[in-house]
Task: structure prediction
Amino acid sequence: MTSHLMSPVERAQLAMMLEVAAFPKPGNVDRCHDYSDTKLEHFLASMIFARPALEEADTGKGRIGEIIGHAVRQTNVHSGGNTHFGAFILLIPLLYGKDIRGASEAVTKTDVSDAVAFYKAFALTKVRMNERDELDVNDPRALDDLRERGMTLFDVMQHSAPNDMVAREWINGFLLTRRGADMLHQIGPGREAIVEMFLTLLATEPDTFIIKKHGRAVAEDTMAKAREVLDGKRVLETFDAQCIGAGINPGSIADITIAAIFIALGEGWSWDS
Amino acid sequence: MTSHLMSPVERAQLAMMLEVAAFPKPGNVDRCHDYSDTKLEHFLASMIFARPALEEADTGKGRIGEIIGHAVRQTNVHSGGNTHFGAFILLIPLLYGKDIRGASEAVTKTDVSDAVAFYKAFALTKVRMNERDELDVNDPRALDDLRERGMTLFDVMQHSAPNDMVAREWINGFLLTRRGADMLHQIGPGREAIVEMFLTLLATEPDTFIIKKHGRAVAEDTMAKAREVLDGKRVLETFDAQCIGAGINPGSIADITIAAIFIALGEGWSWDS
Result:
């Protein structure tokens, strides 16, 4: 075994791999659980196929909205559907800007063309939006709306932030990404730290993917149950099985987990316990 | 979902991912089983980290022995030990030569410098050799021996072929790689085909990694039991647990499985069932 300085792109791929391999992660695809339409292999294949877009982001050149679009297109080639849309929204600025500070600055420089490229990619993913959302991605007029209002991709994220914890990261300086990375440093190396960090985020933040799919009450119930697992009052494996049975998958917290692993790896956190 | 022509390097990484994710694969690390020192994440990390060597091989330029050495060094960066040494011995000529015919030709063009580079990489892996082997990789005189005898890397593989099924692939035109790929085409798409192909190879060929570790009797017993699983006379999961308990891991057949998936993917076999 020799020492090895990972490239940022390798760190991003490793973060995507480590997140999906970690188990048990309540409700999500993990090493032990598939959904009928989306399996472990789909997540790992997306991680392989996204490489050109991750490399593009790592150059720190080009337009962030377009690069997110490239990542979506490069991974939209299997039957598993959307696997990493939210993760790309975080990883691509983080690669582009080199760290949280650089990413936070880069996202403010997006323009209308980024927003248009992003919406075009969004339309491919079938990611659920809030019903009341006025900028419906499936509405062809949405692109005209963006252009008329002169909305940048940063504006779009600001618009979505109240109802989307991934969009909120763009606005608040990647707050939960930072918190997740700090937790990994604090807990220690390896797979178990990822599971504990995931559970802690799940216990403290309502997952906006769950809210969009099942409503706020279900998201809050999921938080309370995650807290009980952390407090030793509920069995993790049972909670996991209940979530999977009910289709309650905390997809947004998974996205933030990937971003947090990416940041922590770059700061010396060891995945290899 | 859009169509996507995978690059050869993506195919190689996908093959490495699909092999280790497929389950249950008797005795080996798979989606459901780790060994205490080598875990699923180590195999998947090696798949990510090997990319530069796979790209180097794909150029069809440079020296095969050195490129294998680069792959070994690029993946020798975690605590999981050797994960893919045998797989690289197969994948790198196959990438280099574009197909089985090209690879079979390329390996005959290796020279003494390839053999030296290969032995230097081999020394890093702690892969078990036959006790009687006169070209002991841990013996510093082995490199002098190679040079004095003028042995090319092809000669080394020919020398090892009687006792090593991976080396034998170089000599016999990638016979089992071809057979495995044909099986995948015949069985059909997806994860289950990989498991059935693996089991069929295990039932028909003594795994030389098992022979080196446990002796021929154990390898032959493993074949017989794999045959019983295929015939419905033995439960796959029980057989898997027995192999893992006894440390019987068919590592060479796993290497050939990866090469077979790589070839089959290039011929249109679909992993995505």
User: Anything to note?
Assistant: Chain B has a mean pLDDT of 93. The two ends of chain B are 14 Å apart (CA to CA).
